[in-house]
Amino acid sequence: MQPVVDAAQLARADAVAIADHGLDALVEKAGFALAVGARRTLGRTAGVRVVVWCGPGINGADGRVAARVLRRFGAAVRVVDLDATALPEADLVIDAGFGTGVRRPVVPPRLRGTPIVIAADLPSGVDPATGAVHGQALAATATVTFGALKPGLCFGEGSRLAGAISVVPLGLTYPDAKVFRVGIEDLDGALHQSPLRHKWTTAVGVLGGSTGMLGAPGLVARAALRSGAGMARVLAPTDTLPGAPEAVVVNRSSLDARAVLAALERCTALVVGPGLGKSPEVSALVRTVLLLAPHPVVLDADGLGAFSDVADLASVLQRRPSGAVTVLTPHDGEYRALMGALPSADRLAAARALATASGATVLLKGPTTAIVPSDDGPSYLVTDAPASLATAGTGDVLAGLLGALLGRTDLDWTTAHRAGVAAAWHGAAGRLGYEVGCLSSDVADLIAEVASRRSVDHGG
Question: I need a labelling partner for 52 at 20 to 30 A (CA). Which of 108, 157, 224, 279 fits?
Answer without folding.
Answer: 157
